[in-house]
Amino acid sequence: MNVEPNQLHRHVVELASTPRPRNSDALKTARRYVTQCFEQAGWSVERHPFAANVGDGQQLTGVNLIARHANFRADDRPRFCVGAHLDSCPNTPGADDNASAVAALLEIARLLPSCRPDNLSVELELVAFDLEENGMLGGAEHARLMRDEGIDLCGMVSLEMLGYCDHQPGSQQLPPQLAGMYPDTADFIAVVGNQMSQPLIDRFADGLRQVPDLPVESLAVPDNGHGLQASRLSDHSPFWDAGYAALMVTDTSFLRNPHYHLPSDTPVTAVAVPRDALVERGGQSFVYKVTDEGTAEQIIANIQSTVGLWVGIANGIEPGDRIIIRGGERLAPGQAVEVIPSASAARQ
Predict the structure, then answer these.
(1) Same domain, 163 and 282
(2) Is the peptide bond before 98 cis (omega within 30 degrees of 0)?
(3) Which CATH number does the domain housing residue 316 bear?
(4) Is residue 321 part of a domain?
(5) Is residue 215 included in any domain, yes or no?
(6) What is the spatial distance between Cα 322 and Cα 150, in angstroms, rounded to a whole number?
């Protein structure tokens, strides 16, 4: 099961070209894109329109997209839901919030059908939620649907902002209640659950720790997170309130990302190269690519992201460039190199 970092990036670029607020044409276009990606991966998609009262006689309408796959249908098993909200605030293209998480949801959809366990213990559904930015209304609607239809929902995971990382010490902010309890470097993924979700927290945190070089932190909040409002800011919180075990998996949102809800929350163009291509020298990271003349060109690596054995570099590398994977530490800029045909290229 191989995650494609550049596929994730393509999804983010496609979804975050413009803001996607409620009822907008851009959101409708994003729904069509997500539906197409689900269906290409073999999932059937149900559009679930809904209306929500928000006070003062105002009613908002939205559409959740519910995807199911024949490999994961099991009417006699409890149901498990993994979701991410598709909408954005009006003034931001929402690359991190929340195109990054929708991209992860679509990659899950692509990968899962090929690895169905022989002993399927749950029925799985993937959901693209609407109206999260208006008060987690899409999540609240889906929790209501589960309850009203008597669905045995054994757990839910909300993917919320997964794309922002900063390796500088001091880049991670913490609520006062958590000061000193977690790292101050914004390079980890957080798994957040409530008081009844500890087994789910443990299982997902342990699973994420299998990803090479991915720091993972976890938190179980009491009282459904009402004493720590930042822990409630995604579509998992209505499931907590409805009595279900639920998690948020997140890069911690505004606690690290200075572009939160701003026009600057845009995709950064990056190309994935193998981590083995990185050369550390004099406190800087480099990669070498092979020029048309057969020499080594040294590129300072502006690292934007890391995913397992891949790093995303935002400067000087184009898809298809020939990258030197091993032996770069012995090279000098301009040195003639011999290309081995099986060497990896940069990928988009």
Answers:
(1) no
(2) yes
(3) 2.40.420.20
(4) yes
(5) yes
(6) 55
The residues near 79 (Cβ < 8 Å, ≥ 6 apart) are 122, 123, 124, 125, 146, 151, 152, 153, 154
Cα–Cα dist 25/20, whole Å = 8
- pLDDT digits (tens), the chain, 348 positions: 688 888 998 999 999 999 999 999 999 999 999 999 999 999 999 999 999 999 888 999 999 999 999 999 988 899 999 999 999 999 999 999 999 999 999 999 999 998 888 788 999 999 999 999 999 999 999 999 999 999 999 999 999 999 999 888 999 999 999 999 999 999 999 999 999 999 999 999 999 999 988 999 999 999 999 999 999 999 999 999 999 999 999 999 999 998 899 888 888 755 678 888 999 988 889 999 999 999 999 998 887 666 567 777 777 887 678 899 888 888 999 999 877 665 444 444
b/e 291-329 (16+ beta carbons within 10 angstroms → b): eeeebbbbbebebbbbbeebbbbeebbeeebbbbbeebe
Scanning the structure block, which residue is given the tokens 């890391």? 306
Give φ, ψ of 256 to 5 degrees.
-140, -30
Tokens of 154: 């054994």
Q: Could you give the angle at which helices 25-40 and 101-111 cross, rounded to 10 degrees?
A: 20
Considering the domain boundaries, does residue 316 fall inside one? yes
> In which domain, by residue range, is 225 found?
5-255
| Pair (115, 64) in one structural domain | yes
Residue 345 lies in a domain: no
Which two tokens mark 186? 């914004």
